[in-house]
Amino acid sequence: MVPGVPPEPAVIVRGAVREFARPKPYPFAKRPEPFTAVAGVDLEVPHAGSVAIVGESGSGKSTLLRMVVGLLEPTRGDITLGPGAPPQMIFQDAGASLTPWMPIGKQIEERLMALDVPQSERGARVAATLEAVGLPAEAQTAVPRALSGGQRQRAAIARAIAVPPALLACDEPVSALDVSLAAQVLNLLCHLRETLNIALLFVTHDLAAARAVADEVVVMQRGEIVERAPTEQLFTAPAHPYTRELIAAVPEVREVAA
């Protein structure tokens, strides 16, 4: 980083489109037009910034997130990642994303190996990473099923940040947790963002979670961005009718925004 020069964004998305083929209704039928899940989206996440993408199921937010981390290729458009370690993904179901038969410590060590961390450093790095996400030392030898839901999500976060990525992509990371555990994980993500200087791209249908973690909120509907604004501005003075509908549907968010 050059002194006085703003750091490059963690990711820049320009004109991203993702289409999915529809099956033929019968063998000799003309193939239907493809389904467009993401329709020409522009998005930028600043270095160490936090952007939340909200919208109902089917709005295209998770498809966009998967394109950013490389799990899906865009049909058209460009996605440019900033410098630093590749983005990492935190999924809704941490249990499914962790290898069920492998101890948590070994799963973290695998990530260190993949990025050529010397063997002599790995043990200390694994222990430090578990401590950073609030897991006890004994979690290192535990398999995922031996942990609680909240602990499994922390373990998934630990694996993702063992080598801090430039961007941590989170797909509904607290939707499977109860309110108190969800609050703890959200606080952890905010803390890690600050201490590790990483960016967050946070996909959720939970407006309260978006408000807790994001500097900016992007609202998606039918594959398009219909509104984007700094977080408090969006919640206190939403401009788009769809945004107002989303806020009105959640009493606790509506009361704070009123």
Automatic annotation (TrEMBL):
SUPFAM superfamilies, sorted: P-loop containing nucleoside triphosphate hydrolases
One Pfam entry name: ABC_tran
Domain AAA+ ATPase span(s) in chain numbering: 47-224
Keywords for the protein's UniProt record, in alphabetical order: ATP-binding, Nucleotide-binding, Transport
GO molecular function: ATP binding
Record's signal peptide: none
Keyword flag Nucleotide-binding: yes
Keyword Nucleotide-binding: yes
InterPro entries: AAA+_ATPase, ABC_transp_ATP-bind, ABC_transporter-like_ATP-bd, ABC_transporter-like_CS, Oligopep_ABC_C, P-loop_NTPase
Name of the protein described by the UniProt record: ATP-binding cassette domain-containing protein
Organism: Svornostia abyssi
